[in-house]
Known about the structure:
This protein is an alpha/beta fold.
Amino acid sequence: MITLVLQGEIYSPDPLGIKDILIAGEKIIALEEHGHINIQGIDVQRIDATGKKIIPGIIDAHVHLHLGHGEQRLDYLFRLAKETEIPITQIIPTHVNSKHLLEDAVQFTMMGGYIDLTANEEPPTGNYYSPSDKRGDEILPGKERPN
């Protein structure tokens, strides 16, 4: 398949300006000023990237978001997934270490996302789940931080 991506703002990693990208299969074969790539006689998929930023060659770029103590739960991530075009697989919440965060994380994964379960030696005060409780089939409430 031949694809022509038109008028994207290219970063590689420095800004290169507005360019067209010609892709054959999975390989970039040309990066030119807009309008300088002429393809005739074959079927070409055209993608209008006007107003979009493109970073050629980046594979599986994603962000790990540390949730702190999780007061907002995953509310911001749910909004981000719902209100933007960012694929849910590119946002990975980390430090899912409370009952409420784990409940949200299960919902997040059911939407197609991934999570990073991080174990701490000293979990925050309040409800949390710990692998050391050896009861992975339920969330255990009421563990308090030792003094």
